[in-house]
Design goal:
Layout (H helix, E strand, L loop, with lengths): L2 H16 L3 H15 L4 E8 L4 E7 L11 E2 L4 H8 L4 E3 L2 H5 L5 H6 L4 E9 L2 E10 L6 H7 L3 H16 L1
Antiparallel strand pairs: 1-2, 1-6, 2-3, 4-5, 5-6
InterPro entries: GAF (IPR003018), GAF-like_dom_sf (IPR029016)
Keywords: Plasmid
Protein name: GAF domain-containing protein
Length: about 170
């Protein structure tokens, strides 16, 4: 971790400490993600495993990926990695992305060809994922290692959002 990363984490902390809004928490996480690992497209998904549904709670691209409605959870290798193993999913080509995401053409049209999906787990429960997408081959082993620095801030952002929703 370098001084830029430390400053980015401090900026995230300051935002969370001073703005209790759900949008602010997720926007701060988006900014942190872009500074740490890069993300042309950034979304937050929450999960409701009891009803087997996922919901987009935040997006950097509301026209292409609006925050509305739900979609069914699919049981595939992505699910096995993120939901079962609770590990980060990485795909670095649009061809690889197309094997798990049906919207791969929209992803490609936005200039993205790689993805990192970071599971957010609190108290043994998967709350959702942080999804960062960028150009093909962007998520190098070094960037994937840096994505670990997003895990704790992601938990904080999700908990801040849940706190706001409960009010």
């Amino acid at each position: 971790m370098n001084t830029e990363h430390i400053a980015a984490l401090a900026d995230f902390d300051a935002t969370i400490a001073n703005d209790a809004g759900t949008e602010a928490a997720y926007r701060a996480l988006q900014t942190l993600s872009r500074k740490l690992i890069g993300a042309k497209l950034f979304t937050i998904m929450t999960v409701d495993m009891a009803n087997e549904l996922a919901r987009r709670a935040y997006t950097s691209h509301p026209d292409e990926y609006p925050v509305s409605g739900t979609k069914p959870i699919h049981y595939d290798r992505w699910f096995d990695t993120v939901h079962k193993a609770r590990e980060t999913f990485v795909a670095n080509t649009i061809a690889d992305i197309s094997t798990v995401f049906g919207d791969y053409e929209t992803i490609a049209a936005l200039g993205c060809g790689s993805v990192v999906n970071i599971p957010v787990v609190v108290g043994g429960e998967l709350l959702g994922t942080v999804n960062c997408l960028d150009v093909e081959h962007h998520y190098t082993p070094e960037r994937v290692a840096l994505s670990k620095l997003l895990e704790m801030p992601a938990k904080l952002a999700f908990l801040a959002a849940a706190r706001n929703t409960a009010k």
